Amino acid sequence: MLRINLLLLLAVMLSAIFLVHTQYESRKLFTELDRAESEARRLATDQQRLQVEKRAQATPQRIETMAREKLQMKPASPAITQYVQDGAAAGAVQ
After folding, report:
1. CA 34 → CA 20, 22, 42, 43, distances in Å?
2. Where are the transmembrane segments (predicted)?
3. 67 and 73 in contact (C-beta within 8 Å)?
4. pTM here?
5. What is the rounded distance in angstroms from the CA atom of residue 27 to the CA atom of residue 34?
6. Secondary structure of the chain: what % helix, strand, coil (to 5)?
7. Chain centroid offset of residue 94 CA
8. Which whole-number Å values give the CA distances from 3 to 6, 8, 11, in the listed order?
9. Alpha-carbon span 6 to 71, nearest angstrom
């Protein structure tokens, strides 16, 4: 009878230790999940902000202004346009 009681006590102790360990792991995983979700929300907010900034930077007026001022580009006109023909294509036409 004493052996059965000791065996049952050991089984209960192992079960209790396993339960505590499982609860600890569950809480740890829940905390990690919560952190990951908050990081995902932060990244989604940053993405939206960056898309708004991208749209603001890519307006046609801003691009034209930068092309004229920083790159010193001029509008295309027939006076400054040069047409280049490929030598192979020119030989085939003749």
Report:
1. 21, 18, 12, 14
2. none
3. yes
4. 0.53
5. 11
6. 80, 0, 20
7. 55
8. 5, 9, 12
9. 87
Q: Which residue has the tokens 């939206």?
A: 48
The per-residue b/e assignment along 10-24, b for 16 or more CB within 10 angstroms, e otherwise, is eeeeeeeeeeeeeee
Here the tokens at position 37 are: 């979700």
Tens of pLDDT, residue by residue over 54-79, are 998 888 888 888 888 988 888 888 88
Place of tokens 């499982």: 22
pLDDT, tens digit, 9 for 90 and up, residues 2-59: 999 999 999 999 999 999 999 999 999 999 999 999 999 999 999 999 999 999 888 8
